[in-house]
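re: ur question from yesterday

yeah so i grabbed the chain u mentioned. its 126 aa long if i counted rite. heres the sequnce exactly as i have it in my notes:
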Amino acid sequence: MLIRILITNEIMLPSQFFKCLSDETRLRCITLLQKEGKLCVCELTTALALSQPKISRHLASLRQYNLLQDSREGQWVFYQINPSLPNWAHSIIKNTLSAVELDSLFKNDLKRLQKMKNRPTSTICC
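ran it thru and got these structure tokens back, copy pasting raw so excuse formatting
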């Protein structure tokens, strides 16, 4: 049986889902979003210690395949895991978070995020 996710005008195969998660930066974004729920680009750039263009490029890839949902609040864009992903995809993301929570890279990402001053609320950002 072939499992497919319907995307705007395309079908995403499981191989595409895993390809999206195979990049370390995208995986770090997804796991932080799974842990935190909703983050803006400035929070992800701080947590991952990477440039805004690099983070934005990876978020665009994840959004293109409907793994993420974005919402504009004022001049800021917030991201979250798409709640309409199939159950199998949510399970994989949750299990992935459980696996990486013990990893020092994830722990450092989370520490940087938690130390971030002036973290945005849903109405204000950096």
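noticed a couple things. DSSP finds six helices and five strands in the chain. also The first helix runs from residue 14 to 22.
anyway ttyl
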